[in-house]
Amino acid sequence: MMNNYTSRARHKHDEGKLSLDIIVGLTIFLLSFVFIIQYIPTIFASERSEIALYPLAYRISALLAEDPGYWSNGSVNGTDWENYYSQPSVEVRPGLMGSEVNVLDSDKIDALRNFYLSAGEGEIRKALGLETPDREFGFNISLQLLSSDSSNPAYSTNGSQPLLLIGDPIPDWRDVARYERIIAFENTTTVSDISSRVDTPNTVNYNFVVTAPVGSFVIVILDRNDNQSATEPWMRVDVNGNRVIDVYGNDTIGLFDLTTTINQLSGTVNVDMQVHNVRGYVISTDAGEYIGGRIVAKLVVAVW
Amino acid sequence: MESLKDRGTEGQIIITMALMISILLAGLSYVYSQNLLAGTETSITQLNFPKNEIRDLRRIAIEELTDYASEPSSFLDRAKELDRQITTLYALHGAYASIDVFDIKRSVVGGQESITSFMVRIVFSNTEVEYEETISVQLT
Amino acid sequence: MMTLEGVIAAVLILSVAYFLFQSTMIISPVSDEVVYVQMRQYGQDALTIINSQTGAEDTLQYALKRINSTYTPYELLNSLEKLLPDYTDFNLQVYYVNMTTNEIEVYNITNRIPTSTTVTASTYLVIRNGNSLMIPPSSSIQQALRVPMPMSPYCWR
């Protein structure tokens, strides 16, 4: 039968017949080809959100921790944006750096918090470069204690408010990129609940009341107050009536970290100090831990 | 189209299409792997860029030389020794670093010599980055 | 006849796909590298914090001035433990230039063994007015030091 058909129609090339399976095969092929062509743009790096997010989080953390910020209204500019962010027609790039890298200025931290509260999320997003023509990134920027982690975030607080917590809550149903920087606060006094000098050649009683758990409670004795005096320095410290420190002479000079002792208790804790001939200070803060002579916390930037 | 139905050539279309699909598949996986490399290279760039080394170099140059300038008689010797040690230590990381003090201005006040200002040229160079800066330090 | 070509075509596509998927480049996850970036950042930041000039007992300046074979800087090591995350361990070394031989020498403050997933961070400092390590005191001239700190995550993810 085939032979008949082909021999009869051999001289009639212009019949215009297509066989069915050629058409079916070509259709299937073209459909899958079109599907693959549509699939290609999603493979490219800029569209894959997971890759684009990590450099973004790194960039924002670097901008905040390593740059003091910038403001400009076209003719005048400067780095003290914390004084100018609320003025109209002023463009601001936030930055938190104080005198050196990784050391943050409390005024700038407050300014960023107030900027977020007054201007809203959209303005901060623009200022940090998180808004592109085809995509808006969500963000969450906060200062947390060194011991905090993503399942139990413990924010740095001053009084009862977190020092810095801006942005939306972190979603757990999307790809989130998170980058952390360890930072120190420039001015210990402004972020501490208790920051009092202990400086006397005589015997004095000090009493402090804190609520456990605290971020840190340290007593730093730098030196004798009076080198000429014949009497040796000494210090006795009671926590809720229990004697925890009893030092005499040169043992008095040093750093005494009462954080863990206080955090084993709960509720209100009384710290009674009796000192003689010392010069130093007492610091209690919920903003971080006392390391290297400054209060240290971490800046956590999350984008999605 | 008639010739396509001859025996022996009908199947050629199928094979050709299969070949084209295979080439497409190989091409797409090449693009995908470039995508992965892009993520890796972003990280490697951050790991390698000597941001902190340059910062440390500037900090040491400015702070330590200012400290040395309080004793003018030994200033140049100590600056040279510091430069030598910096070059040796930065060479461990595969970089060339040096601090070069020049144009030292001194003043004599009441028999006491003191340094009023100096210039320092800071140079850092490794395989990817070259950094040079000249700073003028004024001492009150 | 057609069946044979169809089979050959199917085998061609399948074998290309098989060999491609076998290659490891496609399977390795992207976010692996960024862990190392964050780890190195922790080390760098931690070194910056303990390299402060405040004169506190747990700074590098304080510890390195007093270090010798009998003195271990416990405050410094404690602070580093607090600064770094729980899943990391670290080793702390000091590299310095020996004044007499002009060679670089290394002093191990801790003696832990790095693992295969180690990153290094380093900072530089100059000790002021201190006794040099291991060298007879001749410290009218200060030394510049490099403190590399390899860290390894014990467990992550």
Amount of helix of chain B = 40-55%
Largest sheet of chain C: 3 strands, antiparallel
What series of H and E elements makes up the topology of chain C? HHHHEEEEEEE
Radius of gyration of chain C: 25 Å
The order of strands across the largest sheet of chain B is: 1-2-3
Per DSSP E runs of 2 or more residues, the count of β-strands of chain B stands at 3
Q: What's the overall geometry of chain B?
A: rod-shaped
Can you tell me the number of structural domains of chain C? Answer: 1
Count helical runs of chain C.
4
SS content category of chain C: alpha+beta
Strand content of chain C: 15-25%
Oligomeric state of the chains present here: heterotrimer
Percent helix of chain C: 25-40%
Largest sheet of chain B: 3 strands, antiparallel
Give the radius of gyration of chain B.
32 Å
Mean pLDDT of chain C: 70
Count of helical regions of chain B: 3
Overall description:
The complex is a heterotrimer of chains A (304), B (140) and C (157). Chain A has 304 residues and is an alpha+beta fold. Helix content of chain A is 25%, strand content 37%. Chain A has seven helices and 19 strands. Chain A has helices at residues 2-9, 20-39, 49-66, 106-119, 121-128, 188-191, 259-263; strands at residues 70-72, 77-78, 91-93, 103-104, 131-132, 135-136, 139-144, 157-158, 161-162, 165-167, 177-185, 194-212, 216-223, 234-239, 242-248, 254-257, 267-285, 289-291, 294-303. In chain A, the strands form five sheets. In chain A, strands 4, 7, 10, 11, 18 and 19 form a six-stranded mixed beta sheet that branches. Chain B is α+β, with helices and mostly antiparallel strands and 140 residues long. Chain B has two domains: 3-48; 51-138. In chain B, strands 1-2-3 form a three-stranded antiparallel beta sheet, with helices on one face. The longest helix of chain B has 39 residues, at 10-48. Chain C has 157 residues and is of the alpha+beta class. Chain C has one domain (32-153). Chain C is 36% helix and 17% strand. In chain C, helix 2 (32-50) packs antiparallel against helix 4. The longest helix of chain C is centred in the first third of the chain and has 21 residues, at 2-22. Chain C is elongated, with a radius of gyration of 25 Å. In chain C, 34% of the residues are buried. Chains B and C meet through helix 1, helix 2 and helix 3 of B and helix 1, helix 2, strand 2, strand 5 and strand 6 of C.
